[in-house]
Specification:
The chain is an alpha+beta fold. It contains 23 helices and 40 strands. Helix 17 runs parallel beside helix 19. The longest helix has 20 residues.
């Protein structure tokens, strides 16, 4: 037989080397270190004894050069290693001829669209910056002169006649009129685009009132300055602007560089204003911005009047600069949120919904220049999905009256746009302000959304795909979650990305079945695809089987899958403290291999789902019953020590309707109660349950009815787990091992053996250990017995505060603490015929008293660790009660004492496995040597091994010594 292989360096530490050194000496230490790939550090020169080594001080201070950095402090508690396993795997067969999910019911009545309809509706007129009835008198006065009329000036005529003057002409009244010559300069800068149409309307109206004769209009072609370049309307050639004759009024329509913000532009306007002032020309600058936005030099050179609805038509010399209206800008952007197209007319109409003093022309201009908008000459749109989501959230927080008014403006302004814009905006308005949308219009938009989904799912047109992309980017998560038709539009927009092999994130609130049909790249052509789910390092991958992909099969397998549908959805859920609870993505089933998730400590659950498949992976920490857990090329495994040897259990994922389970070549398994192992002797099986270490209150509380004085309640800690038979020893097992049957009741070989003394039980245990290698059977200690009987409870019984004969075999005519009377069977019953406690142990109450290993003694009042009183030849402990006793005697805390030679028909025993302890109550422990366990399994794959147990180093030293002896 080959010598056992030494474990890797990852499984052996310096403490193991110290044990080897202490047991075998320096030669064994050198050999073991070489085998485990440890290297001796290079020797360093040391100063002579008594000589002080010169310190190597660093130039910048701090520790001497060459000093190693301090080691990080070890945390108080290290996180437990986490692994993952498949806990659910359900596959459904697809109907013949179809591999994808069915279409939703609402799609049945949808029609194919043959174009983008343009309704015959005219938008309302553009709202002017100021009422014309206020603007015209001001302009006539500012750009005109007083001229003589035909009406005589009677007061002057009387006055001159009274003085005896000779009249050559009659004095006539003078009235204001337009100046014969007016020079106009228009600045169509990029920053003032919201007001360009206002400039054009004013020029057209001024031409009608004054007449074309005498009006000289020029357009600024570049930056202003001493000699600005201008051009004539409808002419691209530029020229120097000649100054008009003195006294000629000049009208400037511009923002005067206030919105541009460039220093060179503002200096240019100041130079131009100073030149006009020196020329003696009266200049009126109509600016839609406050005068405080301009520099003092420019305000002194020009007469600047703010042109807006809420301002007085006069030159205001306001010192300083006005702060930007941030609140008004945010409100206007929020009001624009439902709009697909943002145009200047809509912006003006929405601004006029706000109070007069809150939003002026400056707010309108700043909105047009905002980073959230991409604007052109007259129209624009929001810059991206993030900006849309943020502004729609602000829109939802506005007062209901303002939201309804904004929706009314939007629907009126865009009533003449194509359906792809108009009805898309109606759909958004129906989500943000449903009361503001007329029912007939809402119904029209709903039918249009259904028709769009039908058309896009049937036809593959490039223009439609591009529109769907833009349309999907505009929808908020709230809108997609609220309307399955909009969610269908989003899904249809992702088909191109899915076909290219990308994974797309599913919006929050959108259910997978709502979009599954529309996400299918080619539902009718879906085929069966075999795939393997495996782990590589800390990543979870879905890949083709090893036969189809040579690079596959190198990780740790999870499950074999059959993908029927064209698209699969992945959900990665994290625990609440880690941030977002779940992340959902979809990908095409044919795009393999694919990395599905990174299995970090924050991940709790992973789901792979399609129409005909659902697979769930959950996080797993090392079970309490396992000494180690890990992953290798065979998959997830756990290790336990059974019959003195380390055994492996492999996780078998659920499949074909069966639940996942732990399997092993050894007679080991895990069920709803926990880990169990079985021995078989002479055709008789005995199952043992692994009882994990823990702490409990032994004895009974002072208020428990019918308690005894020797049941003093105290805290007990069991530092190590142990195996305990799930039933009392049966007559069949006794006969197979020992021969004969001393029992009084022999109706069924599965009845517990009784009429056996403590000494008989010890003889049976010795014979069983002799005939079953590595068994280490024994009687449980009293503390172990009560700990297992209670199964985590603190009530008088593991079943609660009281019992019934249907649960326990006891004298039913003597119930406990006022309970109802019941059946008295008058004999033992077959083991495992009554309900088990929470840890899978049968008949811990009643049936037969069970011997314990301890000698009887009074309980200590303080906390105890692993108590087990050494038998001194006088009295032994029995626990559990019997078929003959009343209800109070089958309590968890009930104790009975007797000599080791007692035999009668109510006394039996239950086996425990593992090392037993002896000594005083909580003082000293004698542990039997445990046989060397097997070499742990090894292999490739992700995950490693998480180990537990307090005897690992002792096992390691024993294994290394055995290894050397064989050499």
């Amino acid at each position: 037989m080959a010598a056992p292989r030494l474990p890797s360096r990852a499984a052996a530490g310096r403490a193991d080397l110290l044990r080897i050194y202490g047991a075998l000496g320096a030669a064994a230490l050198e050999y073991a270190a070489a085998e485990l790939h440890y290297e001796r550090p290079a020797a360093q020169e040391r100063p002579a004894p008594g000589a002080a080594a010169p310190p190597q001080v660093r130039p910048g201070g701090g520790p001497p050069a060459g000093t190693p950095p301090p080691l990080p402090e070890r945390p108080a508690s290290l996180p437990r290693a986490r692994f993952f396993r498949v806990v659910e795997h359900r596959a459904r067969s697809a109907p013949p001829g179809r591999g994808g999910p069915p279409p939703p019911a609402w799609l049945a009545g949808a029609e194919l669209l043959d174009g983008d309809r343009l309704p015959a509706a005219a938008p309302p007129p553009r709202a002017p910056l100021m009422r014309w009835s206020r603007l015209w008198p001001f302009l006539r006065q500012a750009l005109g002169r007083r001229a003589a009329s035909r009406r005589p000036d009677l007061p002057r005529l009387v006055d001159r006649l009274a003085r005896g003057e000779t009249l050559r002409r009659l004095p006539r009244l003078r009235q204001p009129g337009w100046s014969p010559e007016i020079a106009i300069l228009v600045d169509y800068s990029r920053s003032s685009r919201p007001f360009h149409e206002d400039f054009n309307v004013l020029l057209g109206a001024l031409e009608k009132r004054h007449g074309r004769l005498g009006l000289s209009c020029r357009i600024l072609a570049g930056e202003p300055g001493g000699r600005p370049q201008v051009r004539r309307p409808r002419d691209s050639a530029s020229e120097d602007w000649p100054l008009p004759p003195p006294e000629t009024p000049i009208l400037i329509l511009s923002d005067l560089g206030a919105l541009d913000g460039a220093p060179e532009t503002q200096r240019g306007w100041q130079q131009f204003g100073q030149r006009l002032r020196r020329a003696g020309c009266p200049v009126l600058a109509l600016c839609p911005l406050p005068a405080a936005r301009h520099a003092g030099e420019l305000r002194r050179a020009l007469t600047i009047v703010e042109w807006d609805r809420h301002r007085r038509l006069r030159a205001d010399a306001v010192p300083g600069r006005e702060a930007p209206p941030a609140a008004a800008v945010d409100t206007l952007l929020a009001l624009l949120a439902p709009a697909v197209v943002v145009d200047v007319d809509l912006l003006r109409a929405l601004r006029f919904l706000l109070p007069t003093g809150d939003a002026g022309g400056l707010a309108e201009a700043l909105v047009w220049q905002h980073a959230d908008l991409l604007t052109g000459t007259r129209a624009g749109r929001f810059a991206g999905a993030a900006a849309i989501a943020a502004r729609q959230q602000q829109f939802a927080a506005l007062p209901a009256e303002l939201r309804q008014a904004a929706v009314g403006c939007l629907l009126a302004q865009h009533a003449g746009l194509r359906d792809s814009i108009r009805l898309a905006e109606v759909s958004t308005c129906g989500v943000l302000a449903p009361q503001a949308v007329p029912p007939a219009l809402a119904e029209e938009a709903r039918r249009w959304r259904e028709n769009i989904a039908q058309t896009a799912s049937r036809l593959d047109a490039a223009a439609l795909r591009q529109w769907l992309q833009r349309h999907a980017e505009r929808q908020s998560d709230l809108a997609l979650a609220d309307d399955p038709r909009l969610a269908a539009h989003w899904a249809l927009a992702q088909r191109e990305r899915l076909a290219a092999g990308e994974a797309v994130a599913l919006p929050p609130g959108v259910a997978e079945p709502e979009v599954a049909y529309f996400l299918q790249v080619a539902p009718a052509a879906a085929a069966l695809r075999r795939a393997t789910l495996c782990q590589r390092g800390d990543e979870l991958w879905l890949e083709a089987p090893a036969a189809d992909a040579p690079q596959a099969g190198t990780g740790s397998p999870y499950a074999e899958l059959t993908l029927v549908d064209g698209v699969v959805c992945v959900t990665v859920a994290q625990h609440a403290e880690a941030g977002p609870p779940a992340e959902r993505r979809c990908f095409a089933a044919g795009a393999l291999p694919r990395r599905l998730a990174r299995l970090t400590r924050e991940v709790e659950r992973f789901t792979l789902r399609s129409e005909h498949l659902e697979l769930v992976v959950e996080a797993l920490s090392k079970p309490e019953w396992a000494s180690a857990v890990g992953r290798d090329a065979r998959g997830l495994f756990a290790e336990v020590v059974w019959l003195g040897r380390r055994r492996r259990l492999d996780w078998q994922p659920p499949r074909d309707g069966q639940e996942g389970r732990w399997t092993s070549e050894a007679p080991l398994g895990v069920d709803g109660y926990g880990l169990f192992g079985e021995i078989e002797f002479g055709g008789v099986r005995q199952r043992f349950r692994w009882i994990v270490a823990g702490r409990f209150l032994m004895g009974s509380p002072a208020d428990e009815p019918q308690r005894r004085r020797d049941e003093v309640q105290h805290e007990v800690t069991l530092s190590e787990g142990f195996w305990l038979a799930d039933t009392a020893c049966t007559q069949a097992l006794w006969q197979a091992v020992w021969g004969g049957n001393p029992s009084r009741f022999r109706d069924d070989p599965r009845q517990p053996v009784e009429n056996v003394s403590w000494e008989d039980a010890q003889g049976f245990v010795a014979e069983l250990n002799r005939r079953v290698a590595g068994l280490s059977a024994r009687l449980p200690s009293e503390a172990e017995w009560e700990y297992a009987c209670r199964a985590g409870t603190t009530t008088p019984f593991s079943f609660g505060a009281n019992i019934a004969p249907e649960q326990v075999n006891y004298h039913g005519e003597y119930p406990y603490a006022g309970g109802r009377k019941g059946l008295f069977r008058g004999k033992t019953v077959a083991v495992a015929s009554l309900p088990a406690n929470a840890w899978g142990l049968y008949e811990m109450h009643g049936n037969v008293w069970e011997w314990c290993a301890d000698g009887y003694g009074e309980y200590a009042s303080g906390p105890q660790v692993d108590p087990c009183a050494a038998p001194d030849g006088a009295l032994r402990v029995l626990r559990g009660g019997s078929w003959y006793d009343g209800g109070w005697s089958v309590r968890s805390a009930r104790r009975r004492r007797s000599g080791p030679g007692l035999r009668n028909g109510i006394v039996g025993f239950r086996l425990a496995l593992g090392p037993w302890q002896a000594g005083g109550a909580g003082e000293g422990r004698a542990v039997t040597a445990e046989p060397a366990p097997e070499t742990p399994p090894s292999g490739t794959g992700g995950g490693g091994v998480a180990r537990g147990g307090t005897r690992r180093t002792a096992h390691m030293a024993q294994r290394v010594m055995d290894f050397f002896k064989r050499r």
